[in-house]
Automatic annotation (TrEMBL):
InterPro entries: ATPase_NBD, Type_III_PanK. This is Type III pantothenate kinase. It catalyses: (R)-pantothenate + ATP = (R)-4'-phosphopantothenate + ADP + H(+). Catalyzes the phosphorylation of pantothenate (Pan), the first step in CoA biosynthesis. It comes from the Bacteria. GO terms for cellular component: cytoplasm. Belongs to the type III pantothenate kinase family. Pathway: Cofactor biosynthesis; coenzyme A biosynthesis; CoA from (R)-pantothenate: step 1/5.
Length: 258
C-alpha cells in the first residue's frame, strides 16, 4: 500500500492506495506544532481505524503547502513503517509541460491537480481547487500548464468578514440559503459566500474559455467545492480526490522498481 499525503494549511488528506484503487481516505487537522512522534501516533491510529496495518505500507509520497511540516511527517512515516517518502518538489519527475515565467515557482497543489486532471479528462482544462485558498489551473489543448489564478478561499473570506466587522458573526457553511436574496443577516452572508463564489466560478470559466478555446472542461476539487458547484450555471465536474490521484500518479512515475 502506498500512502499519499496532501498537507494543506487547514487539513491533511491521507489516502492509502493499493495499485490504482483507493483503499481508505482520512482528513486530519493540520497542526504545525506536532512532532514526528505525535504524527506517527496519529497516522497509526488512522490506519487502525480503517483496518490497515503499518506493515502494509510499501512507500509514501507527500505534497505540502506548509514547508515546516515536510520533515516531521516524513520522519513519522519512517518511524511507522520504515518507508522513505517522496516529496513533490524540485527533482521529481512530473511529466507536466510547464509554460510559465519560472516553472520552479509552481506550487505543489498546482502540480498534483494538473497531473491528475490531464490523466483523467480531455483538454483544454480549467481546474479549481477549493480549500483554504482557491487556485485555478489552466491547461491548453497541447496538455501544457500555462498558468492560473490564486484567490482567497471561502473560509478565509468568511473569517475576514466576521473578524473585521463588528456586527457580523461567524456562520456555518452546512447548506446554502434558499434564495440569492437573503432575508436576514446569516442568510445574506451565506448568499455572498455561496452564490458569490458560484458566480466567480462561472465568470472565470467564461474568461478562461476565451483563452483556452471551446471544448474546455471545467473540473473542481477540494473540501469546499461540493456545496457550491450545484449553484453554478456552467457544468463543473466534481472530483473529490483529484490531488491524491495526482500524488499516486507521481509516485508511480518516480518510485524505484521493486
Amino acid at each position: 500500500m502506498v500512502l499519499t499525503i496532501d498537507i494543506g494549511n487547514s487539513t491533511i488528506a491521507v489516502g492509502g492506495y493499493c495499485g490504482d484503487q483507493l483503499r481508505f481516505l482520512a482528513n486530519l487537522r493540520t497542526d504545525r506544532l506536532k512532532t514526528a512522534d505525535e504524527y506517527a501516533v496519529l497516522f497509526k491510529s488512522t490506519l487502525e481505524l480503517h483496518e490497515c496495518s503499518p506493515r502494509e505500507i510499501t512507500g509514501a509520497i507527500l505534497a505540502s503547502v506548509v514547508p515546516s511540516l515536510v520533515a516531521p511527517i516524513r520522519q513519522a512515516i519512517l518511524l511507522l513503517s520504515g518507508a522513505d517518502s517522496l516529496v513533490v518538489g524540485p527533482g521529481i519527475k512530473t511529466g507536466l509541460n510547464i509554460r510559465i515565467d519560472d516553472p520552479a515557482q509552481l506550487g505543489t497543489d498546482f502540480v498534483c491537480v494538473s497531473v491528475a486532471a490531464i490523466h483523467k479528462f480531455s483538454c483544454p482544462l480549467i481546474v479549481f481547487e477549493m480549500d483554504t485558498a482557491t487556485t485555478i489551473a489552466a491547461i491548453n489543448r497541447d496538455r501544457q500548464f500555462i498558468g492560473g489564478a490564486i484567490l482567497p478561499g471561502v473560509k478565509i473570506s468568511l473569517d475576514a468578514l466576521s473578524q473585521r466587522t463588528a456586527q457580523l458573526t461567524q456562520i456555518s457553511l452546512d447548506q446554502p440559503p434558499a434564495s440569492v436574496v437573503g432575508k436576514n443577516t446569516a442568510d445574506s452572508m451565506k448568499s455572498g459566500v455561496f452564490f458569490g463564489t458560484a458566480s466567480m466560478i462561472d465568470g472565470m470559466i467564461e474568461r478562461y474559455r476565451e483563452v483556452l478555446g471551446d471544448g474546455m472542461t471545467a473540473v473542481a476539487t477540494g473540501s469546499l467545492a461540493q456545496p457550491i458547484l450545484p449553484l453554478c450555471r456552467h457544468k463543473v465536474v466534481y472530483d473529490p480526490n483529484l490531488t491524491l490521484e495526482g500524488l499516486r500518479i507521481l509516485y508511480q512515475k518516480n518510485a524505484d522498481p521493486i
